[in-house]
Amino acid sequence: MNLLEIQNLKVHFPVRQRWFGGARECVRAVDDVSFSIAPGETVGLVGESGCGKTTLGRAAIRLIEPTSGRIVFEGEDIAAMNSKELRARRRRFQMIFQDPFGSLDPRRTVSDTIGEALDIHRLVPDATARRRRIDALLQDVGLDPSHATRLPHEFSGGQRQRIGIARALAVEPKLIVCDEAVSALDVSVQAQIINLLQDLQRGHGIAYLFVAHDLAVVRHISHRILVMYLGRIVESGPAREICRAPRHPYTRALLSAVPVVDPDSKRQRILLAGDVPSPIHPPTGCPFHPRCPVAEARCRSEVPPLRDLAPGLRAACHLAK
Ligand code: SF4
């Protein structure tokens, strides 16, 4: 059974009403998205800034309210739950944020930050057990337990992200949504945090939804990848296959921006014109057609469905094979 099953999820934000009683406009940040995550699996969610991936990551654990669709977590539709029912299940899915400093209270010690999560969910019986658990969590994420009384500003960016991970880990989640969790870090520190997340996955069987704009990072950690454009999934499949032979022109463009180690590589950078269009007035037909280097006439009028191309591999492009 899948750990998480997202079915036809939509997140639309109303923006303004037109004059003279026109239809209310809305941002279609997430538009009819479906995917699943198995226990212990990492699914990467990649796309440019403004493609809706952060909104989707948050809506997947109901940090943002979906407009419609189902979010089936461990067999229960959490999209249909009231706040009390949701609170009782919150500790099973956690989030790690891009800015670890912004997500940590600067006046609270590491011990207080991690201990709060234990207290809220009543996971330790007394102060001694609480202290032991905090020490063990700090060790798990590669921090010195003797630093538990320090404040966030006394740590480096990478160490602060480790504190954020320890806080998420404290409540023994089954799923962690990592929202650009390494984007603000130096490349060497990024590698350390990714290794840590992979070690924790092996040790605790945690699944990750790893949201990032950088395909180079996503492909290293993910078992499967979802490529998102203008609120929709345009390609999905095993990470290795997507990176070896991307079917969608947008994925090809993202991949062409990833640096290659091989000096003989003939891969050429595909530069996309302009930015992601407004999700208030998305283009007709294929939403990618104004920027697509291989668009045909029908791309301007026919919406390409997300089609199965091979087992587990799908793409939304008229030309994809
Ligand atoms: Fe490009 Fe057409 Fe494919 Fe869209 S459907 S990605 S415009 S070729």
Q: Quick summary of this structure?
A:
By secondary structure, the chain is α/β, with parallel strands linked by helices.
Report on the structure:
With 321 residues, the protein is an alpha/beta fold. Helix content is 28%, strand content 24%. It contains 9 helices and 12 strands. The protein has helices spanning 53-59, 83-89, 110-120, 127-140, 157-169, 187-204, 215-221, 239-244, 249-256, and strands spanning 4-17, 24-37, 42-46, 68-73, 76-77, 93-96, 175-179, 207-212, 224-229, 232-238, 307-310, 313-315. α3 runs parallel beside α5 (157-169), α4 (127-140) packs across α5 (157-169) and α5 runs parallel beside α6. The protein is globular, with a radius of gyration of 21 Å. The model has no long low-confidence stretch (mean pLDDT 92). The protein binds iron/sulfur cluster. Iron/sulfur cluster is lined by residues 248-249, 286, 288-289, 292, 294-296, 299, 304, 317-319.
